[in-house]
Automatic annotation (TrEMBL):
Membrane topology (UniProt): Multi-pass membrane protein
Domain of life: Eukaryota
UniProt keyword Magnesium present: no
Compartments, as annotated in UniProt: Membrane
Sequence intervals crossing the membrane: 96-117, 182-204, 210-231, 323-344, 364-385, 405-428, 448-476, 488-509, 533-552
Source organism of the structure: Nicotiana attenuata (Coyote tobacco)
Family: Belongs to the major facilitator superfamily. Proton-dependent oligopeptide transporter (POT/PTR) (TC 2.A.17) family. Belongs to the major facilitator superfamily. Phosphate:H(+) symporter (TC 2.A.1.9) family.
Gene3D superfamilies registered for this protein in UniProt: MFS general substrate transporter like domains (1.20.1250.20)
Gene Ontology MF, one: dipeptide transmembrane transporter activity
The name this protein goes by in its record: Protein nrt1 ptr family 5.1
Any Pfam family the entry gives: PTR2
Length: 581
């Protein structure tokens, strides 16, 4: 006979809406069914993104700027559509069903893309390795397939990771400790999929068949979905506490503006808030008052509603709006780092195609395969970070994460600056070698090994261990309770807008520097351009952005929420303010 102690304390249920037993569901047992999908989905995405610029230039005959712009626009769409998927999950369907529908759309897009590069009449015809220009219908079918994938990704990306985090009970100390490592090992599975793509699939695409290179991850994706659904009895599902959680985001500033002429009480306890019994009976979490964005506190001023004034918001509702504003402030300073990350699949690849890529006398590695060193560095660094760095720093700081989330981001951003500085220095060296050997043609090979680009890839891999994982955990952890899917889209949309920003910068820099018959920094002939100037431009922007990040992080206030479990008061986040040193 099960007792209340045997069930999860956070109110999670099974697919039929029944309470679930803590011992038989959730935790890593459930997550083991999820990580397979994430690995294959990442393999599919990076199998496309890593080498897409090569396919566009060699098979569809697009110029450098157009191909970079189209890769960035597609990648940006893949990362920005999760905004819609998260809204659907948080307000209508829930994470499980939103993921289910979207994953089928994703698979359909992969099947169509595989057809676009495999079936004879759907792809450009080639003779002796030279491809004819694609027809309008072929181009339309190819890009339609890509953007169907982007739509599918919109529902899978924001929900699969948060659904995995839902498998750990915040009110169980042992499970909460396991959750600290969840995002590290979750990202480890994504890195494994990306490594397989950049090492294996890229080689298959360039040397065997583009159709086979896209077909393998398509089959893998279908297989991983079968595994995912086999694990359905083990999953925990969070119950939505409110029908329209985003409504408070609009209501709070409206009520605050209506009360703008009223003075705030000196004591925050005089603001409107439900008693603890309300939160205990509804299963919601109370968020404590913080001094950030004080003007929003006016939404919680108690007023006599019989006079026709608007009903006050609760402190918890006000703090939810404050959290979103604080997260938006941090989100803005992640756009430039996302622009740096976008170089891995675009200009870094074009740069690598001009260098000596031979291993021995016969074997030549694809330029995009160098991106595997970003992933390999992550795979090696994540276990070291989780098993050694976190326990060591935990003893020093007393923080259960070792360092705060914002400190983790700051370290990652600093390493990124070093990486782009090295990329700039290496491009300066490449240009010097070009001048020494009088190289002019776009297809002439510069007598430098492609492995001279290795340091910038490795450093970006180390940086991602800090900022990519840190951003995902930060936006999940700091989101209001009913908006965690939407909260994680801060992470994906930042990457998406970073890609769009890079597309915009590449286009504008090309137009400005190439006007009046000037030499474009990013021309079709990379050997007669000035990528070093563009990298220097990104270096300056990154340095200024780090200063903006330090300013924003020193003003960010972490959320403090609490609830009641088994007649005990539990505070889930004790830190009021965490500052970067």
């Amino acid at each position: 006979m099960e007792t209340n102690n045997d069930y999860t304390q956070d109110g999670t249920v099974d697919l039929r809406g029944q309470p679930v037993l803590a011992e038989k569901t959730g935790k890593w047992k459930a997550c083991s069914f999820l990580v397979g999908y994430e690995a294959f989905e990442r393999m599919a995405f990076y199998g496309i993104a890593s080498n897409l610029v090569v396919y566009l230039t060699t098979q569809l005959h697009e110029d450098t700027v157009s191909s970079v712009r189209n890769v960035n626009n597609w990648s940006g769409s893949v990362w920005i559509t999760p905004l819609l998927g998260a809204c659907v999950a948080d307000t209508c369907l829930g994470r499980f069903w939103t993921f289910t529908i979207s994953s089928l759309i994703y698979v359909m897009g992969m099947v169509l893309l595989t057809m676009a590069v495999s079936i004879k009449f759907m792809k450009p015809s080639c003779e002796n390795g030279v491809c004819n220009k694609a027809t309008t219908s072929q181009i339309a079918f190819f890009y339609a397939s890509l953007y169907i994938i982007a739509i599918g990704a919109g529902g899978t990306k924001p929900n699969i990771s948060t659904f995995g985090a839902d498998q750990f009970d915040d009110f169980n100390p042992q499970e909460k400790k396991l959750k600290v490592s969840f995002f590290n090992w979750w990202m480890f599975s994504t890195f494994a999929g990306a490594l397989l793509a950049t090492l294996g699939l890229v080689y298959i695409q360039e040397n065997l068949s583009w159709g086979l290179g896209y077909g393998i991850p398509t089959v893998g994706l279908i297989f991983s979905l079968v595994i995912f659904y086999i694990g359905t009895p083990n999953y925990r599902h969070k119950v939505r506490k409110s029908q329209y959680p985003a409504r408070d985001l609009f209501r709070v500033p409206i009520v605050a503006f209506a009360n703008r002429k009223i003075d705030l009480p000196n004591d925050p306890s005089e603001l409107h808030e439900f008693d603890m019994q309300y939160y205990f009976s509804t299963g919601k979490r109370q968020v404590h008052h913080t001094p950030a964005f004080r003007f929003l506190d006016k939404a919680a001023i108690k007023r006599d509603i019989s006079t026709g004034s608007r009903p006050p918001c609760t402190v918890t509702q006000v703090e939810g709006a404050k959290l979103i504003m604080g997260m938006a402030m941090i989100w803005l300073v992640t756009l430039i780092p996302s622009t740096i990350w976008a170089q891995i699949n675009t200009l870094f690849v074009k740069q690598g195609t001009t260098l000596d890529r031979h291993l021995g006398s016969r074997f030549q590695i694809p330029a995009a395969s160098l991106g595997s060193f970003v992933t390999l560095t992550m795979l090696l660094s994540v276990p070291m970070y989780d098993r050694y760095f976190v326990p060591f720093m935990r003893k020093k700081t007393g923080n259960r994460r070792g360092i705060t989330l914002l400190q983790r981001l700051g370290i990652g951003f600093l390493i990124q600056i070093v990486a782009i500085a090295i990329a700039c220095a290496m491009e300066v060296r490449r240009m010097e070698v070009i001048k020494m050997h009088h190289i002019n043609g776009p297809k002439e090979i510069v007598p430098m090994t492609i492995f001279c680009l290795l340091p910038q890839y490795v450093l970006l891999g180390v940086a991602d261990v800090f900022n990519a994982i840190g951003l995902l955990e930060f936006f999940y952890d700091q989101s209001p309770e009913d908006m965690q899917s939407l909260g994680t889209t801060f992470f994906t949309s930042g990457i998406g807008l970073g890609n769009f920003l890079n597309s915009f910068l590449v286009t504008m820099v090309d137009k400005i520097t190439g006007s009046n018959r000037g030499k474009s920094w990013i021309g079709n002939n990379i050997n007669d351009s000035h990528l070093d100037y563009y990298y220097g431009f990104l270096l300056v922007m990154s340095t200024l952005n780090l200063g903006a990040f330090l300013w924003a992080s020193n003003r960010y206030i972490y959320k403090r929420e609490s609830t009641e479990v088994k007649d005990e008061f539990v505070e889930l986040e004790c830190k009021a303010i965490d500052l970067l040193p």
